[in-house]
Amino acid sequence: MWQFLFWASVAAVFYTYVGYPIILLILGLFRRGRHVHRDHELPSVCLIISAFNEENVIRHKIENSLELRYPRRLLRIVVASDGSDDGTVGIVNEYAGRGVNVVHHTERRGKSAMLNDVITGVTEDVVVFTDANSLFVPDAIERLAAHFTDPQTGCVVGKLRYIDGDVSPVGRGESIYWRYEAILSRLESVLRSVLVANGSIFAIRRELFRELYPDVANDLQIPADVAMQKRGVVYEPNAVATEQTAMHWHEEFDRKTRIILRGLTGFFVLRDRIRGFRRWQFVSRKLLRWMVGVFASIAFVANTVIADQSLFYTGLLAFHVVFYFAAMVGWMKRGDRTPNRFLYIPFYFTMVNSAALIAMARFVGGRRQQVWEKAHSTRGASPDATLSASSKESVDSRTEAVEFQR
User: Fold this and answer.
1) Do the bridges between strand 100-105 and strand 232-243 make them parallel or antiparallel, or are there none, so unpaired?
2) 255 vs 205, more confident
3) CATH number, domain containing residue 241
4) Strand locations in 163-310, DSSP E?
5) Are the C-beta atoms of residues 1 and 160 closer than 8 Å to each other?
6) Structural domain of 65
7) Is residue 83 in some structural domain?
8) How do residues 349-382 score in pLDDT, each as one tens digit?
9) What does the pLDDT look like over 294-342, one tens digit per residue?
10) Rounded to two decimals, what is the model's pTM?
11) Which residues of 11-28 are buried (b: 16+ CB within 10 A; e: fewer)?
């Protein structure tokens, strides 16, 4: 029995991280190529910036938005302030003469509830969602909008790139995580079925928007709603948003716990909308990954029981012990400015899966979360550094050919 538990757990982890991408790759081989045409008339766009007490970054975000390479007559910028009680609204009002609008509610109700109100006043063809601490490369909206020349495309997901992923163990771990997520999004995009959006940068056709549940993440519900309406959800890797990573492990731990709790809530609430192929995607890409901590724990316990059965199992137990010892040392050295990959990878893996276990316990216990708590260290990026990174990414992105397969 213990051998079965061990290998079943190992198989579950392997399938989650390797098997699912391989299956997507195989399925994608049977889809026809699909090109994006950039010579069509561009749609009108409303850029909605979600904000809560963003006085440290909102000016930089607005300036970045005003400098986007998209016809001003076709672009409207709206800042959605959900209960901000600092200087955010005052700063935004300074840009009223440049066409920047603010929708402000004094009561904090959560991002989804705020977006429900804002979207009622949108008349543009396409809505782009973003956060106050995310900066776009100059052609980001242009690249997102180009996909909507295809009437069968309903949602386009952009790419998130961290500008300082090498300065902390958390930053490096998060950068690896998003690179892996980008691979999955590319593979899913070939099938025109990207499972989740990136809240920092994604776009939809306005008419496909459906009222959001207050305790469900908008970047989970909106793609599900679009897919339910038989429209494609695709990934545009050259539409790039840059952000600063969380510098402190406890901020990232809390953020992961919140995201997974809202993800579990979203799946429960949207279970009738996430059906068939997309339900398999959700189980494979999200649900099983959130349970990796459970599988890893079972594998470790089972390995200790069967370690004396062969030298092979003894070696695997030694690997387990070294891995978790490295995670502990990584936690002790979490403040290092030059983290060692042999330490930060085990540390980040263990931290994220611990957060998932806590999130699952809270979900089972009936806890839900409507408002989001920002990581304060992500709101202190140097403007010069960010713009430099954005400019470099923009130059790199223009050298890449954009092609999607159907």
Assistant:
1) unpaired
2) 205
3) 3.90.550.10
4) 202-205, 232-243
5) no
6) 31-248+380-405
7) yes
8) 999 999 999 999 999 998 876 665 555 545 554 4
9) 999 999 999 999 999 999 999 999 999 999 999 998 887 766 666 666 7
10) 0.85
11) ebbeebeeebbeebeeeb
